[in-house]
Amino acid sequence: METTANVLVGLVAALHAYFLVLEMFLWEKRQGRKLSGFDAAMARATAPLAANQGLYNGFLAAGLVWGLVADDPTGFRVQVFFLGCVLVAGLYGGLTTNRRILMAQAAPGALALTAVLLAR
After folding, report:
1. Which are the contacts of 102, defined by CB distance < 8 A and separation ≥ 6?
2. pLDDT tens across 36-59, in order?
3. Which of 50, 48, 101, 110 minimizes the C-alpha distance to 80?
4. How far, in Å, CA of 15 to CA of 29, rounded?
């Protein structure tokens, strides 16, 4: 179960690293506009906000990687903390912004958190 948990945590970290790239560097390009549904003018106007979100997603990814490489009990605690942050952010975003966020962020975070807790 520990291997499964580590793989899931790694996948959530990679997902948030992808969000960082998408929101910080690709927001005004086709990929970013497709995700947001914004036209070029709106993407340009919201790019600073998206970049800020991307930076926060990068912090989540970094924290999850830290949790994977740190020895226990620190690694376990860091994973639980950052996966909890991912879950809360995904729930909040899904309920206030776009329901797709529930599946794209909250569900993977919840699955990884459950695996980490069960592996303990």
Report:
1. 90, 91, 94, 95
2. 889 999 999 999 999 999 999 999
3. 110
4. 19
